[in-house]
Design a protein that fits this description.
The radius of gyration is 15 Å and the shape is globular. It is built from one helix and ten strands; from the N terminus they run E-H-E-E-E-E-E-E-E-E-E. A hairpin with a 7-residue loop joins strand 7 and strand 8. The protein is mainly beta. Strands 2-5-10-7-8 form a five-stranded antiparallel sheet, with no helix packed on it. Strands 1-3-4 form a three-stranded antiparallel sheet, with no helix packed on it.
Length: 162
């Protein structure tokens, strides 16, 4: 199989300073047995605490796609240069006007698809983008720890990535 794989590691290790956590921020709780390619409508059934909106994804545990996960055993990536959008659920809502810190590992894989940008937003529901928080351009071919401090622009229980 020839994969054009765009590896955007959105949230492998996520902690928010006000004690909110993603329900499955490291993607370790999943129903995959091995590397799996799937459409957005399958994301919630494979990875609890997430919901696919559009595109194709790959849940990876091997080192076949630009190396292994930097934190834990699994990572989630976009697939085949498609725009892949999904939401992740927080255990408690963000509070409008409060300051938060989001920590994550990310990378791109140039030899399997190239560099991309990733948008991160917060939303009142699990199906729309909501308010833009940040746009990232993951570095190519190596994991980079990103830390983002932001003020919540709305009370929200969802983080949207595209």
């Amino acid at each position: 199989m020839n994969y054009c794989f765009l590896t955007i590691i959105l949230v492998l290790s996520v902690r928010i300073t006000r004690a909110q956590n993603f329900l499955n921020g490291s993607f370790e709780n999943n129903a995959a047995l091995t590397d799996t390619v799937f459409s957005s409508d399958k994301l919630a059934s494979l990875v609890p605490g997430t919901k696919g909106i559009s595109g194709m994804f790959q849940l990876v545990t091997s080192d076949d796609y630009c190396g292994t996960a930097v934190d834990g055993s699994w990572f989630l990536g976009g697939f085949n240069n498609q725009i892949s959008e999904f939401t992740m659920t927080l255990d408690t809502p963000l509070i409008n006007g409060s300051l938060y810190q989001l920590n994550m590992w990310m990378r791109s894989c140039l030899n399997l698809g190239g560099l991309v940008t990733m948008k991160m937003g917060v939303s009142n529901n699990d199906s729309t983008f909501g308010s833009l928080v940040e746009i990232f351009s993951p570095p190519d071919d190596f994991w980079t720890f990103q830390s983002l401090v932001f003020t919540a622009s709305l009370t929200s229980k969802y983080r949207y990535g595209s």
